[in-house]
Amino acid sequence: MSAALDIQGLTTRFDTRGGSVTAVDNVSFSVDRGRIMGLVGESGSGKSVTGFSILGLIDEPGRVTDGRVMVEDTDLRSLSPDHLRSMRGRKVSMVFQDPMMTLNPVLRIGDQMAMAVRVHEPMSKTRALERARDALGTVGIPSPEERLAAYPHQLSGGMRQRVAIATALLHRPAVIIADEPTTALDVSIQGQILAEVRRLADETHTAIVWITHDLAVVSSLADDICVMYAGKIVERGTAEEVIGRPRHPYTRGLLDSVPGQHAPGSHLPQIPGSTPQLSHLPSGCPFRNRCPRATDVCATTPPLARFGDHTALCHHPMETT
Fold this sequence. Notes:
Layout: E1 3-16, E2 19-32, E3 36-40, H1 47-54, E4 62-71, E5 74-75, H2 81-87, E6 92-95, H3 109-118, H4 125-138, H5 144-147, H6 157-168, E7 175-179, H7 187-204, E8 207-212, H8 215-221, E9 224-229, E10 232-238, H9 239-244, H10 249-256, E11 304-307, E12 310-313
Parallel strand pairs: 3-8, 3-9, 6-7, 7-8
Antiparallel strand pairs: 1-2, 1-4, 4-5, 9-10, 10-12, 11-12
Domain ABC transporter: 5-255
Pfam families: ABC_tran, oligo_HPY
Main location: membrane
């Protein structure tokens, strides 16, 4: 199956008073139709900037300086601003962490979803509302006809997030970028939405990039995982391989810090220190100042260690157990 999304060498820089910093550093990955790729890392690792870079939503002083972003057979970076806008929503959509970034608080749900349909496809408002109703039903919203008449503030947070996902699905895009869309929701609602997303990927064959800091979420949702640190992908593989046999010490540290992995009342391990400032990265491996396996060689650029289709950017990859 050909990739719905293929990214090669994506690089995004921000010009600051202290100089140019690289927030996304030569990132490459692909996602096939119907598969979910989890993009995981701490805050500041470059996950969200990667998502915004894919859709060309980086504002000054940021700029995408290099790379290719292929959605099916179209390179988004080669498009004019008008053509790129026409692709957003139709071929590639984004679900934001806060659904109110998608929903207009002064318009009814039906009106704004109908506008999202008609901006790309000429049709009557009645037909557009029918499609909006069907999309709401697809994501498990009860009584979708009634929800079309509601305003965003009349819905719960979980319901608003379902509306945002339904809006992203209106044109059956090839790719959806989901930027931590369940972070602010309680566990039960989060579980329901994750189950709906998994079902939608299977049924609609949409490729999904799920951006999150929560490895517990991607372990049950994603087919493949890319782990990011300081703008780089430091580990990549199937979810089974990355979760079950992590090769990079950073991934191991993230897994060890998940509370559910330990007995109640026991000490919770944590990765020492914090993510370095991009303007003051250490030489060589950016993780070396926090890494328990670091040696002098880690001050040089780490090689890409390969274990079949599973890779880790590390001088001292973890052994399997």
